[in-house]
Structure formats: C-alpha cells, structure tokens
C-alpha cells in the first residue's frame, strides 16, 4: 500500500501563451476523491430512482383520487336525483290525498241526497278539509290547464308537505272508518224505506188522472142528497187497466150491488185498498200482487153512472183521503 503515500503530480496545460500548472496529490486524497465521486454518483442515481418511484406513486394516487372523486360525484348526483324523485312522489301523494278527500266529500253529499230521496232524516257528516265545491276533478293530476314559474323546493317546504300529507291521510283513515258504518246504516235504512214504500199505496191506480168525485161529503149522483163519499172516483174508458197501488195480498175479489165487480188488497201495517165498479176482475183471493200489477179492468158495474174506478184507502179499518198517497206514476215507483 505504498502507493497511498506516494505523490502524484498533475499538470494543467492551458493554451500556448500561459504557463503549465502543476499540483501534487497524495494517493489517499485521490482515493478519497474517487470514493466521494462514487458516493455522489450512487446518491444521485438513488435520488433519481426514488424520485421516479415517488412520481409514479403520486401519479397513481392522483389517478385513484380522480377516479374516486368521479365516483363520489356520481353517487352524489344519483342521491340528488333520488331525493328529487322522492320529493316529486311526496307532492304526488299530497295531491292524491286532496283528491281522495274531494271524493269523500262527494260521497258524503251523495249519502245525504240518497237519504233525502228516501225520505230519511239526514245528519251532517264530518266535513273533509276540502270545501264542498272542490271536487276530485279539480285535483286531476294530468297537468292540464296548469302553469307558473318553476322554483326549487326547499327542505323546510318538503318537511311541511310531508307533515300535511301525513295529516291528510290520517284524516282520510278516520273519515273512511266513520263513513263505512254510516253507509251501512244508510243502506239498511234505504232498504227498510224501500220495503215500506213497496207496501204503501203511493201510485195511481189508473193511467187516467181525471178525478170526477173527490173524497168527502158530496151530493149523491142518484139521490142528489148530501152523502159521505168514502173514496175517490177516477174516470176513464171501459177496459182501461186498473193497477195495484202497493205490494200485498188479495183479500177479496167479487161482486155486490153497490160496488159491482170489486177487489180489496191487504198491504200489511193496517193498510188496505179497494177498487170498485170494474168491468173485469183479473185476480183471486190469496193472490200475491206487486205494486203496478194489473188486477182488473175499468168498468161501470154496480151503483155507477159511467166508466170509472172508485178507489178507497183504509188505515186501521177507517177510510182516509186517497189523494195524499198518490205521489208517483207506475214508471217512477
């Protein structure tokens, strides 16, 4: 290792006009310089390699971050769209609730009208939130005849609409629960009323409406003296149909000198009707007849001055004025 202690001379030769520069370096210095140069080179190479790896890693992370950011933006966009759809559904449910409330109000009015038609007592039904004039047609969700500025809805407005819609549907549940037994009661009452009307003599016994002699005191057409007329005379033509004025059972079908050919029908509840001076009897005692059935033909038999029907109504065994009972024709019965 003597070369480490030896001196090495180095010359630097500039251009021709300058002197040659000489300097000496020991082997140790030269060795150290070489080692330092190798170390610096290794460090530089290592730095370059590390920088390249770091740059690659940073690029990869940037790519992953960009990809994740895109995914998050898509998720947020999907969430926003989903929230928008839910808001639209809430608005639709609110409109449906109001539409159903309008229909419930219409059903309540229909129930009242049915009771009025049937002559039943009406009670005020619970009112819907919509007014009576607001029908379901006003909430037809088809967009026809609508418009206005489009303003984004706020969270507070949606929360309020949700609470209102929830309240509307809660009210609807109560209205439906209350209406069902009411409708059942109305149905039973209407059926009972219909059954009662079937056995109540409410229709005319003839197609003719010409009353020639009313119920009450009159001058007798034969004696010309004041006498009580227990029925009502309706004139017409020989052979015109005579109708049962209510459901019932034929209790009498025969002939006598005063009433001529005559028929009596018992309707129950103490009500009986009597049809006299018929030209022909078409029923027999015991027959079941319905309101509007033809039970005979108009005539002038018995104590009569011309073709007509002498029509009587008995209630509790006593005659009453038939005219108040003549409400409808056969077609309206």
Automatic annotation (TrEMBL):
GO MF terms, alphabetically ordered: metalloendopeptidase activity
Superkingdom of the organism of origin: Bacteria
Keyword Glycoprotein attributed: no
Residues of the M23ase beta-sheet core domain: 227-322
Entry keyword annotation includes DNA damage: no
Annotated Gene3D superfamilies: Glucose Permease (Domain IIA)
InterPro entries, sorted: Cell_wall_metabolism_enzyme, Dup_hybrid_motif, M23ase_b-sheet_dom
Sequence intervals crossing the membrane: 28-52
Classification via PANTHER family: MUREIN HYDROLASE ACTIVATOR ENVC, PEPTIDASE-RELATED
Protein known as: Peptidase M23
